[in-house]
Specification:
single chain, mainly alpha, 9 helices, about 75% helix
Length: about 150
C-alpha cells in the first residue's frame, strides 16, 4: 500500500513546481509543447547532436527535469499518488508521449539505454497510467495530423 502523502511530500512537489516557473525553464517547456514535434528518432537526434544550441539545451533541461522528478517517486522520496495528479504530472506524460513511439530507437542511437527510464517506470507501473499515456498519444497523433494537413493547405 502506498504511503499516505505528508506535508513533506507537498513541500517537495511545490518546490519542484516552482523550478518549472523559472524563466529559462518556461522557455524550454514552451518549446517542448509548441515547437518540438518529432516524427521519429532522427528528428530527436538532430536536436540532441546540435550541442550548444538553445534547442539542445531545452531538450536536455526538460527531459532531465522530469527524469529527476520521477526518480524521487521511484526511490520513495515523494508520494506517487500526489506526484501523479494530472495538474502536476501532465507535462511529464506529454513529453514521454512525444518520444514513446520511438524511444527505444532514440536510446540505441544515443547509446543511453536508461533515457527517461524512471519516467517510463512510473508510467508503465499501472494500467491507469498506461491508459492515460495511450489517450495522450492518440491526441498527439491527431494534432500531428492536423498540423500536417494545415501545412499542406498553405
Amino acid at each position: 500500500m502506498p504511503k499516505k502523502p505528508t506535508p513533506a511530500d507537498a513541500e517537495l512537489l511545490l518546490k519542484l513546481y516552482d523550478l518549472r516557473r523559472e524563466a529559462e525553464s518556461r522557455k524550454a517547456r514552451n518549446w517542448w509543447l509548441v515547437d518540438f514535434w518529432p516524427d521519429n528518432a532522427d528528428d530527436v537526434m538532430k536536436v540532441a547532436q546540435a550541442m550548444g544550441t538553445q534547442e539542445n539545451n531545452w531538450l536536455r533541461q526538460v527531459a532531465g527535469y522530469w527524469e529527476l522528478a520521477a526518480s524521487l517517486v521511484v526511490h520513495g522520496t515523494v508520494n506517487e499518488t500526489l506526484f501523479l495528479e494530472p495538474a502536476f504530472s501532465g507535462e511529464m506524460f506529454l513529453i514521454f508521449a512525444k518520444l514513446h513511439p520511438f524511444l527505444q530507437d532514440i536510446r540505441e542511437k544515443m547509446q543511453n539505454p536508461r533515457m527517461l527510464a524512471n519516467v517510463e517506470k512510473i508510467i508503465k507501473k499501472s494500467k491507469a497510467n498506461q491508459e492515460r499515456l495511450k489517450a495522450l498519444e492518440q491526441r498527439l497523433a491527431a494534432r500531428r495530423k492536423q498540423m500536417k494537413e494545415g501545412a499542406g493547405r498553405m
